[in-house]
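From the shared-data thread, chain only:
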Amino acid sequence: MARVVVDVMLKSEILDPQGKAVQGAFGRLGFEGVASVRQGKRFEIELDSEATPEAVAEIERAAATLLANPVIEDFTVHVEAGV
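Structure, as tokens:
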């Protein structure tokens, strides 16, 4: 059994209103030193077997077609160690 993690973030050129709202809340709540915040999504996918290169490639294909909108989002895929 293995866990593959897909992190999805808005591309840097895309405005992130939710991130801006969180950034504002940091200041209002007294947290200092926060220059910017970007909001994203994290998917943890449990495989029923090893994280072979083929299995990870299949997750990457799923991320590109199902989990992320490639027009406005980037994603990274990695195998989580120790699972």
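The domain at 2-80 is CATH 3.30.1280.10 (Mth169; Chain: A ,).
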